[in-house]
């Protein structure tokens, strides 16, 4: 079985050491770096399966590191930050993170979130490789094996969670999914009241699909119920 490698990028060595200690107990291989530029170098030099990024790092912050990762790699990203307001969390998700953990944090909770991200990412990749059904709907083409998306022939760069949401909705056009349905199927966790995670990802997904300029929306909101694919 392939060893799973996790990148830990935090400018506080004691925090990076603590995370490494708990993740290695779970059987993960860890690579630690202490600034944003080192994080980019590690991504380019190693096969990374998941990245845990502090937002406020020297040289390059977590947002810029995420932007550069998303240009070439498809892997889950968890932000770890002292920025704890709802607006900070939303900003982190909009910038491309798949999850957001605030400092101070419970190491076991972080491990559980890492496990959930790895599990969901692995399951979706396995399903894609097993099914290999290319979806072509309303000018949108989704290649599940390569996890790529194009709209009218133009590539659309999506985060892993955005891809998973789009693939879920597009696989069953016209079926309405509640936020709870989407969260539990894509994140693999129990939905909790008040969570706006799905709404934030749907918003950024629509923006990347250019839905602010299209009259006919690919992702339709069914008010009071949820979302459906309208392709």
Automatic annotation (TrEMBL):
UniProt-listed Pfam families: Response_reg, Trans_reg_C
Q: Which domain of life is it from?
A: Bacteria
Residue ranges of domain OmpR/PhoB-type in the record: 132-231
Q: Where is the Response regulatory domain?
A: 5-118
UniProt DNA-binding region: 132-231
Question: 4-aspartylphosphate: which positions carry it?
Answer: 54
Q: Which UniProt keywords apply?
A: DNA-binding, Phosphoprotein, Transcription, Transcription regulation, Two-component regulatory system
| InterPro entries tied to this protein | CheY-like_superfamily, OmpR/PhoB-type_DNA-bd, Sig_transdc_resp-reg_receiver, WalR-like, WH-like_DNA-bd_sf
Keyword ATP-binding belongs to the record: no
Read off the PANTHER family from this record: REGULATOR OF RPOS (PTHR48111), RESPONSE REGULATOR SAER (PTHR48111:SF2)
Q: What is this protein called?
A: Response regulator transcription factor
Question: What is the organism of origin for this protein?
Answer: Paenibacillus sepulcri
Q: What is the lineage of its organism?
A: Bacteria, Bacillati, Bacillota, Bacilli, Bacillales
């Amino acid at each position: 079985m392939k060893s799973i490698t996790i990148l830990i990028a935090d400018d506080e060595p004691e925090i990076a050491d603590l995370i490494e200690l708990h993740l290695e107990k779970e059987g993960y291989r860890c690579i630690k770096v202490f600034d944003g530029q080192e994080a980019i170098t590690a991504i380019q030099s190693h096969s990374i399966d998941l990245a845990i990024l502090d937002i406020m790092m020297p040289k390059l912050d977590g947002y810029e590191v995420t932007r550069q990762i998303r240009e070439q790699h498809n892997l889950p990203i968890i932000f770890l930050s002292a920025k704890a307001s709802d607006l900070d969390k939303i900003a982190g998700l909009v910038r491309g993170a798949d999850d957001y953990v605030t400092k101070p944090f419970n190491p076991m909770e972080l491990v559980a979130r890492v496990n959930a991200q790895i599990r969901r990412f692995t399951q979706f990749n396995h399903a894609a490789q097993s099914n290999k059904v290319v979806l072509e709907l309303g000018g949108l083409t989704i290649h599940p094996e390569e996890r790529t998306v194009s709209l009218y022939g133009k590539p659309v760069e999506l985060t892993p969670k955005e891809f998973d949401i789009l693939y879920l909705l597009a696989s069953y056009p016209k079926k309405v999914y509640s936020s709870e349905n989407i969260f539990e199927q894509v994140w693999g966790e129990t939905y909790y009241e008040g969570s706006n995670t799905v709404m934030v990802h749907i918003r950024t997904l629509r923006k990347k699909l250019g839905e602010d300029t299209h009259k006919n929306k690919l992702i339709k909101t069914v008010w009071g119920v949820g979302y459906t694919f309208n392709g």
